[in-house]
Amino acid sequence: MRATCLRNSITTSVVIGLCALAQGLSWAEAQAAVPDNSTKSSVHASAPPAAERAAPSPLLPAPGASTIPSSVSLSPAVAVVNCKFGQTTTQTLTLTNRTDHELIFEMIAEDVIVKDGKRIFVAAGETPDGIAFTAVFSRKEVVIQPLQFASVSVTFTLPEDTPLRAAVALFRGSTKLSGGAIKMTASLGTLFTFAVSRNFEVESAPLALTPQSATANLGISQVLTNTGSDPFVANGIAAVLNQAGDIVGKATFEPQRLLPGERLPFKAEYSTELKTGHYRVLASFQYEEKVITSSSDFTVP
Fold it and tell me: What is the pLDDT of residues 284-297, one digit of tens each?
């Protein structure tokens, strides 16, 4: 089958020594990233493109430039796919090695399921009608020399009637890196999310407020649950109103991605000290083309 899917993507990086992650945990960065551009993807022949066969350009700093921190980065970090059951999507993944070590990776795929409101990563083939089992990589092992990069293409097919909406294409590292007295491996992955029916629904818990004190600002928190069948990114803002209904200030919630069934707390902090009086917090979240709003009153003694 030849199919075309719309996809958005973003980039992620890991700084070795500061942000190097133990194997099996390093792709969690994708959970809260926000897509910032879109391209089209289509099925093509499985022969690796030229960019996958070699990485000829060393990533050396320019003369006189400051030393670049050791890091490993993957692009894109998230691929947002809009398609139908049975369709395929192909994405080229590029890993950049800005360390002085040769790095070896095995290419694997895992399903992302949601249980009790939380994400769980499951090996390909262990979930009925899983997406990861359909993954086809242009190569299974990648060796990247210091200050080089390499690209691998992966193709997923969304199984008919699968309840899943996410999978991870993972560069699973086997090279041991020193982190002080601890040896670690660097594993990074791209999160693929699939929207099929555009059924975007959310359920919100009551607003929770933490009063300001001599040592802390007003805290604002709200738990959102994706009750629809497709994933989305929620963006939120909270406005603080005085007793007269005038806005005295605002606070922004960090955007987060919610898979179907996933439940996440959104937190914000109001950075200005409030005077004595009665106030109301009005919190609004936008997801896709919908908005949900709730409020809570409080008093500053």
Answer: 999 999 999 999 99
Residue 209 CB neighbours (<10 A)? 18
Please name every residue paired with 291 in a beta bridge, in sequence order, or none if there are none: 286
Whether 203 and 41 have beta carbons less than 8 Å apart is answered as: no
Name the pTM for this structure.
Answer: 0.78
Which of 254, 195, 277 has the alpha carbon at shortest distance from 33?
254
4-195 and 202-300 share one CATH topology? yes
Looking at domain 4-195, does it have CATH number 3.30.9.10?
A: no
User: Which CATH code for domain 202-300?
Assistant: 2.60.40.10
Q: How far apart are the C-alpha atoms of 199 and 206, rounded to whole Å?
A: 23
C-alpha–C-alpha distance, residues 11 and 74, integer Å: 6
CB 128 within 8 A of CB 138: no
Neighbours of 160 (CB within 10 A): 9
